Amino acid sequence: MRLAQIILDIPTQSLDTAYTYAVPDDLVDAEVGCAVLVPFGNRQAIGYAVALEEVDAEDASALVVRGVDPVKLKAVQRVLSHSYFDELGAACAHYLSEEYIAPLCSCVRLFTPPGGVPRMVHTGKYWRLEEPQIGPVDDRWVRLGPAAAGFEPKKTAVKQKAIVDALASGELRVAELSMELGSVSSVLKTLAEKEVVVLETRRRLRGTGAGEAGSHGARAESFVPSAKPDLTCGQAKALEAIDAAQQRSAGDVVLVDGVTGSGKTEVYLRAIETTLASGLGAIVLVPEISLTPQTVARFRGRFGDTVAVMHSRMSQGERYDQWDLIRSGAARVVVGARSALFTPMPDLGLIIIDEEHEGSYKQDSAPRYVARDVAAWMVAERGATLVLGSATPSIETLYRCDKYDNWHRVVLAERANGKPMPEVTVIDMAREFGSGHRSMFSRKLTKALIETIEAGQKAVLLLNQRGFASFLLCRECGFVPECPSCSTSLTYHEKGSVLVCHHCGHKEPVPPVCPECGSPYLKKFGAGTQRVEAELVSVLEGTGARVVRMDADTTSAKGAHQKLLEEFASAGAAVLLGTQMIAKGLDFDDVTLVGVINADTMLKLPDFRSAERTFSLIEQVAGRAGRADLPGRVMVQTYWADSCAIQAAATYDRALFLKDELPKRRLLGYPPYVRMANVLVWGKDESEVECAARELSADIERTVLEQAGEQWSVLPANPCVLSRLRGTYRWHIVVKAPMGSDVSSVLLPLFRKRKASKTVNVAVDVDPHDML
Ligand code: ADP
Ligand code: ZN
Ligand code: ZN
Are the folds of 2-130 and 233-412 the same? Predict the structure, then answer.
């Protein structure tokens, strides 16, 4: 008899162990990674098999030693799917659930295909099994058959003739034929019986255009890979380090610390090439916003159809098809956002994380994993290699390269084309304002913009929007309209003259007078992209320059991002104005000016990473200028011209920045010197939340005292910076532990034991990225 360990697909903390079920002999296709239907209490539930084991059915003690009561042992009822993951995937899910103190089923779900899993749905009275909504789709194709040559349709058989004519120039989808000719199925059947045509069912790949030209493999034959440039000295050294790591097969990590334009992508491409040549597969993670068609094209250009792509702007059907290509082994490289890490790539040999410092590699719902750290775990487990790339590596990564023997750092100090980094000018906006210049464009930036345009070149302007947006302020009483259910001010939108909450979407019209004091003097503060755009247009009046705005509003439609970039590329003299999304990956030869309109809004956020983020952002955006023959320049407008983050970024001096930042981190107890866990407590009732938070903090303090030691600390429960969000009250408890400590082994038992409450939610964020 076989026994299966099943993780139930029921997201509560208390169900965080696998349950043992018997696997009846007739369920031959049960294997690790399958979805199964099992009895649970007085209903049925979906579960995932994470382990299978053969035991002697005659020997009752075989069960007892495994802690299974033979009387209570129930049997798996059905196998619902093929295997979604292997033993290593199952082990990874366990690791995630422990490391990040998250429900096991939320971790297992990471490994399941997009949209393609069975679910139990409650219909009000009972539970019903719902088969996957998303699955493979087939197309019917038709082409001329062996009897087509001598075939003469009767004069009256108009449709037969039309079909044969249409097929003369090649095969077609039946759907296309019916679009042309109306219903064709009975005629096709007749023709097929005479072998005049051949009908065939073929898997369609949604969204890729593949499948239209035939099967997946057919295109690969005519594929010509893009040319490979001669490696720069730095690139060659980086590859040597990666090759050495791959030879060791010991889970090494290589940081490619290369300035913008140093050709990190070429390093990735070569490393992938070697990986594929040794029969292994590669996963490439790219920040969601840089997953543009250009990025994908660089990988497809070299490796063709063996590249699968995964990101959230694709439909579920498209993602399902890509996932399945990976599972089948047809795709050997996947380029995707964070979640691509969990795709079922057989024989994984290499993981690459581009722009590893990016915040989007932290998942903000359970399991709250850090993709970089999970990838490091995965490669260690598989004897594979992890390559991290960035022009501004995170402080944590730099620290590890310093401390750990198997974390290696290689530096690409020069751009691939040998051009110098653009010169950066810091513009003190406080001084500008003091001398009576009130525009959001300083005189220097205005002059530079006009010069750039007149030279027929391009400029990129960054409006730094994190934690920053325009809002309304009463000049008489200081009232700022807030969202009724979140503790944030409402954002003012010029278009439609409305106030919008960016957390919950609440909308209200701009009041004609102050709701508090009745004053008509309501000032619009801050500057959204729309207002900056309006001012920019007036600054550039008469120059004929095209202004392209790129922000959340203008890029929400599918493909809009791409269209705007194309518009910018094809215009001669033009200005691209945008939010953070423009800081990455733009590669236009004729961009000679980069301006940062407001560098320091992040510096003032109550977040220990603010200075690091400011430093990185400026370095990244500066990298967009002067990438080709034309020299570039960068102008950074700031009210904090003396701050170290800005001064250091302006001189490309990371050492200077770290010299200022690291002692602060050490003193205040922040990463990389400590590990943190942020315990969030939230609910609709304010006093209940406060009470639960205080109680929990006492529990945590006791546990930490008993099990961890004096170097740990538990900060008292406090309201979060965002103390109200979507109508809930939020408190948090911060736990700090020395670097390298096993936070989860101390905290996990406490949270596993905790009874879930109906009204107050608790979540743990281990290694938090954001503590608002
Ligand atoms: P990064 O990702 O490090 O910012 P990219 O990979 O985008 O840099 O490369 C910058 C530019 O340099 C690209 O246009 C790329 O085609 C080019 N490039 C990369 N490697 C080489 C090389 N060895 N020789 C010449 N050009 C190169
Ligand atoms: Zn007022
Ligand atoms: Zn709100």
Answer: no
**DSSP conformational letter for 419:** P
Residue 421 CA to ligand 1 centre (angstroms): 14
Q: Which residue has the higher pLDDT, 111 or 179?
A: 111
Closest-CA residue, ligand 1 atom 6, reads 263
CA-232 nearest atom, ligand 1: 23
**Residue 398 to residue 409: CA distance in whole angstroms:** 8
Record the pTM: 0.86
pLDDT, one tens digit per residue, over 483-526 is 787 666 787 777 778 888 766 778 899 898 888 888 887 777 65
Q: Which residues keep their CB under 5 angstroms from ion ligand 2?
A: 474, 476-477, 479, 514, 516-517, 519
pLDDT at 74 over 60: yes
State which fold the 2-130 domain adopts: GIY-YIG endonuclease (3.40.1440)
**16 Cα to the center of ligand 3, angstroms:** 33
**583: confidence class by pLDDT, cuts 50, 70, 90:** low
Residues 6+ positions from 151 with CB-CB distance below 8 Å? 164, 194, 196
CA 484 to centroid of ligand 3, rounded, Å: 6
- Ligand 1 neighbour 585 (Cβ under 6 A): no
Question: What is the number of other CB atoms lying within 10 angstroms of the CB of residue 744?
Answer: 19
Binding site membership of 619 for ligand 1 (Cβ less than 6 Å): no
Q: Which helix (H) or strand (E) holds 161?
A: helix 158-167
Looking at residue 468, what is its pLDDT?
Answer: 44
Fold of 233-412: Rossmann fold (3.40.50)
Q: 218-243: per-residue pLDDT in tens?
A: 444 577 888 899 999 999 999 999 99
Name the closest ligand to CA 416: 1
Answer whether 258 contacts ligand 1 (Cβ < 6 A): yes
Residue 698 CB–ligand 1 contact under 6 Å: no
Cα-to-centroid distance, 155 and ligand 1 (Å): 63
Domain spans in the chain, listed from the N-terminal domain onward: 2-130, 137-222, 233-412, 423-469+527-664, 471-525, 674-766
C-alpha span between 358 and 604 (Å, rounded): 19
Query: Does the structure show a pLDDT above 90 at 660?
Result: yes
Classify residue 120 as left (phi > 0), alpha (psi -120 to 50) or beta.
Answer: beta
CATH number for the domain whose boundaries are 674-766: 3.30.70.600
Cβ-contact 432, 442 below 8 angstroms: yes
Assign a CATH topology to domain 423-469+527-664.
Rossmann fold (3.40.50)
Average pLDDT, the chain: 87
